[in-house]
Amino acid sequence: MRSLYVCLSAVLLSVSVRGHTDSANGWSITIADGVRAEEGGSAVLPCSFTHPDTNLTLTGSILWYKGKSRALIFKCTDPGPDHSQGELCENVIMRDGGNRFRFVGNLSNKDASIMMEGLSREDAGSYRCRVELNIGKCQPRYRTRLKVEDVQGDLSVVSGTEGDSVTLPCIFETRSYPPLTTVTWMRKEPYQHIVTFTAQSQGTWTTGRGGNRYELIGNPGEGNASIRINQLRLRDNHTYLCLVEYRSRVNLLYLIQKETRLQVHADSANGWSMTIADEVRAEEGGTAVLPCSFTHPDTNLTLTGSILWYKEETRALIFKWTVPGPDHSQGELCENVIQWDGGNRFRFVGNLSNKDASIMMEGLSQEDGGSYRCRVELNIDKFGSGKGTRLKVEGEEQRSDVSLP
């Protein structure tokens, strides 16, 4: 039985795993029988597969259907190394009535899983994955049953300061059977396992991945799988998922999951701090605001100086303006500044008096996707964001609903 790591939003998940093997061509697909998630939260529908051509580079399509009517809710086509057929599956997002379907698998690892976010009652039902690759086509005989339940409690939010430590809580109701085997902590976006703890004899636990920054400080056997993150970094700003796995040798898997939002503030040793967005999503041709606010110790001082924004991948300066102060001796107020770059417009929408250095980007194109960093160079000091804001520009094919022909 292959291990499945399933990310849900503050959920209780009950799963038994089935692998359907077509002996005629050597394929097998493993899915979860049941997934339980909370309304408004997220759910990963897992799907992994094996095939006989182990050394072949895979290209082709991943498809997910809902219900017996086989409504197509997600499809992406991986173009292969030359990208000749389109965008990588990892970059594809589809929307349907406010819900987002996002690929979180990895075709190279034979993982065709997707994440559903913004769940509603209407999302409850059965789902089936299908892979149509250059080596063949396959789908499981069984479906994954998704049950959407009432929200139980609010999302836990934890704050910490760069360089310090912080505890992420994970308190759950224990089970007597099957045995508790694994605790995994995951980052929701980008979707990534960050640390795994495995149960040993006599109630001890070993760290399977993650390194020294993550410590298991709770006792999972008593319903506490909390961890401590040491030496916080600004890029630790994320939503984290705690998954507690009960597994037996007779094809039974039971998962409990909790979600925590971590907010890391800049080191305020010099009185400065800066707050940005982890990610901004916008539509092609539309607009996006990149927020940036800051604090500083000289609260009564009139601020002058420059606002700068960089695109992180190219280190290109995309916006700069100098705040002239009350006498306007150095130029125009930032509020009146518009800059052009290849058809895109960058406009200051913040307010320096309110310590707001935000800008707006208009006429967005796919090329605008990437990471952007904010910096202020004022008469009192200079300060920049320790991480960038990830801008994702969604094309028409990513926003449209999909259906079977």
Describe the structure.
The chain is mostly beta strands and 405 residues long. The chain has 1 helix and 35 strands. Strands 1, 15, 17, 18, 19, 22 and 23 form a 7-stranded mixed β-sheet that branches. Strands 4, 7, 8, 12, 13 and 14 form a 6-stranded mixed β-sheet that branches. Strands 25, 28, 29, 33, 34 and 35 form a 6-stranded mixed β-sheet that branches. The longest helix is centred in the last third of the chain and has 4 residues, at 396-399. It starts with 11 loop residues before the first strand and ends in a 6-residue tail after the last helix. The model is unreliable at 1-24, 327-332 and 398-405 (pLDDT under 50).
Which labels suit this protein?
single chain, 405 residues, mainly beta, seven-stranded mixed beta sheet, 35 strands, 48% strand, disordered C terminus
The tally of helices reads 1
Question: What is the average per-residue confidence, as pLDDT, rounded to a whole number?
Answer: 76
Distance between the termini: 36 Å
User: Which descriptor suits the 3D outline?
Assistant: globular
User: What is the percentage of strand-forming residues?
Assistant: over 45%
**Radius of gyration, whole Å:** 24 Å
Characterize the biggest β-sheet.
7 strands, mixed
Helical content, roughly? under 10%
A few lines on this structure:
The chain is mainly β.
Q: What order do the helices and strands come in, and which of them pair?
A:
Blueprint: E1 12-15, E2 17-22, E3 27-32, E4 34-38, E5 42-45, E6 47-50, E7 60-66, E8 71-78, E9 93-96, E10 99-103, E11 114-117, E12 125-133, E13 136-138, E14 144-149, E15 156-161, E16 166-168, E17 180-187, E18 192-199, E19 205-209, E20 214-216, E21 227-229, E22 238-247, E23 253-265, E24 273-276, E25 279-283, E26 288-290, E27 292-295, E28 305-311, E29 316-323, E30 338-341, E31 344-348, E32 359-362, E33 370-378, E34 382-384, E35 389-394, H1 396-399
Parallel strand pairs: 4-14, 15-23, 25-35
Antiparallel strand pairs: 1-23, 2-3, 3-6, 5-11, 7-8, 7-12, 9-10, 10-11, 12-13, 12-14, 16-21, 17-18, 17-22, 18-19, 20-21, 22-23, 24-27, 26-32, 28-29, 28-33, 30-31, 31-32, 33-34, 33-35
